[in-house]
Amino acid sequence: ALDVRIFESISPCRFISFTIPNPISPLHLLRVAVLDSPVHSTDSSPRVAAILVPKHRETDWIFSTESGHLQLLLNLPGISRLVLIGDDGSDFPTVYHRPIAEDNDSERLEQRLKPLAVALSPKTLSGGEIDDVPFLIFDDNVVS
Questions:
Q1: Is residue 26 part of a domain?
Q2: How many domains does the chain have?
């Protein structure tokens, strides 16, 4: 079992990934990957951000590897911990079948996962900061 106390502080370069049931579709798993920045300023409170991995990009290098995750994090100045959340790639069939209708549940999923993002925040954050874990958007290789 995962000891959630390990997320109470920032530990440079710490990378942890685990799976949880998808709150929208419980038969599927979500992969949650948490990476702490190799560089952290002690002058400021740590900042946490989350990204929902774009559909069908779960096996892309940038989302499925620690080094890809690090590249994303290093392009986000001031972020001390980056949480990536996406469909678990091991859930996918070996043959790709295009979905009949594109599922657009990302806003609903983001709302359901907000408490998880807050729970994965360091305990050094104050009340207002801890509730403000932004979900960033990755689109066309740009994070916004």
A1: yes
A2: 1
